[in-house]
Amino acid sequence: IVRVAASAASLGALLALGVDQRGDDVRRRHRFLIIAIAAASILLNKFLLGDNDPGPYSLVYYPMVSLACAVILWATLGVELRRDSAPTRLLIFLGTISYGLYVVHHFALYAVDALYARLPHIGFIAAILLRGVAAMALTIGLAMLSYRFLERPFLRLKSRFER
Fold first, then answer.
1. 3-class SS at 65?
2. Which letter does DSSP use for residue 121 in this model?
3. pLDDT digits (tens, 9 = 90+) for 76-100
């Protein structure tokens, strides 16, 4: 994850140097298609890899995922969101708890996998959907608790030491 984040950040920085921030070069009707293809490439890479260490495949995996993240960023440049819309509020909320999301997602996947191992066997597609939805819900729930009880007290403390 750190390798993907570093690669994506590097590509994002290069993107910032060469792309007009208004996003005029991406037509509105093409944005969804570009984002869908990039997201599908990330999911396909993860599906092919599973939970295994990429090993030699990492020479392809990390750059592909990083490039897909940069393409998603590029396709969303210039998008104007209304501050009071539900998607905007959701994105702001997820951004607020993003550190917790980063910290707890492996634990949530592990916990869901441990629970899934105890359930009666269900179909492959249902198992993937169940795992994904349950892990996402648990990750968001734990990140909310982390923000509320760990991060927010430190953020309040931080204001005492500002100049």
1. helix
2. P
3. 777 777 778 888 889 889 999 999 9
Strand segments, DSSP code E, in the chain are: none
Q: What is the CA radius of gyration of the chain?
A: 19
Mean predicted confidence (pLDDT) in 155-162:
82
- The Cα 51–Cα 113 span in angstroms is 11
Q: How far apart are CA 114 and CA 135, in angstroms?
A: 11
Closest to 32 (Cα-Cα) out of 75, 86, 96, 81: 75
Instruction: Say which amino acid occupies 32.
Output: F
Query: Cα separation of 6 and 47, whole Å?
Result: 22
Both tokens of 42, joined, read: 């990330």
The predicted model scores a pTM of 0.63
